[in-house]
Amino acid sequence: MKNWLSAARPRTLPLSLSSIFMGSFLAASSRHFNWLIFAFCCLTTIALQVLSNFANDYGDTQNGADLAGRVGPQRAVQSGAITPKQMLNGIIILAIFCLIFGVSLLYFVFRDASTNQFWGFLGLGLLCMLAAYTYTAGKKPYGYAGLGDMSVLIFFGLVGVLGSNYLYTKTFDWLNLLPALSCGFFATGVLNINNIRDIESDTRAGKKTIPARLGREAAIRYHWFLLIAGMVSILLFSILKEQYTILYVLCFPLFFINGIKVSRLPNPDPMLKQMSLSTLAFVLLFGVGQLLL
User: Fold this and answer.
1) What pLDDT shows up at residue 73?
2) Which positions ≥6 away from 288 have C-beta within 8 Å?
3) pTM of the model
4) Is residue 44 a contact partner of residue 95, using CB atoms and an 8 Å limit?
5) pLDDT of 77 strictly over 90
6) Is the distance from CB of 209 to CB of 218 less than 8 angstroms?
7) Number of helices (H) and strands (E), helices first, in the chain?
8) In terms of residue numbers, what domain contains 161?
9) Count of domains observed in the chain
10) Which of 99, 7, 4 is nearest to 44 (CA)?
């Protein structure tokens, strides 16, 4: 059980839930919040994240990225703690949980609505599952082509925030793209720290992440872009919405500290947790501000 818990990588869960919290806070500010929708969104997201982590463990080992000299935490399959077949079975079980939670959520939300909405969101959910698996697993994992950043921006930002918000409100507000992008930029920052840490082992394994393509110095400049873009996006939202309960700015120093530390530390691994928790704190303070409107 300890090996499975380690492979699930619980420290990634706060980041994955941040987009759900953001979408839920936006819904609550317009009086559309529902606890059951929130619970099933969280359960589905957790199952998807653990599925992604299992697939990442499995895929990186199969494709040679988890070499003996990698800097990050040891992977379960690479270390032999879990066999490839066992991990594949774990992935299948998590996929089943994703379907159970996701279909239950969609049935509750769209039971009195058009079936097109149900099937549309089900298709989106299946796409999320496919993206979670094929990031590093399968014959042509897109993470090895440097497309992981785009995927995180889309799924941890746009899909997570806008999708969860729509499940509450059944409406789409274009301005919500800004907080969705903010979440996405910060989540991509977490991935970028991970990729800067693994730049040498990824290069040896042929994993062409953005840091592996650009080099460390350019990857650090890219990291600063992600941090600043995340902060600017949410400030633009507040300005355009004329909302001035901007408690979230209290987290901005944390993002600047992150950028400075990532720039200076030879191994930025300690800043992964800091960035993830800073993003969660940012979302929670944003939410408090929304509830005070």
Assistant:
1) 65
2) 245, 247
3) 0.94
4) no
5) no
6) no
7) 14, 0
8) 2-291
9) 1
10) 99
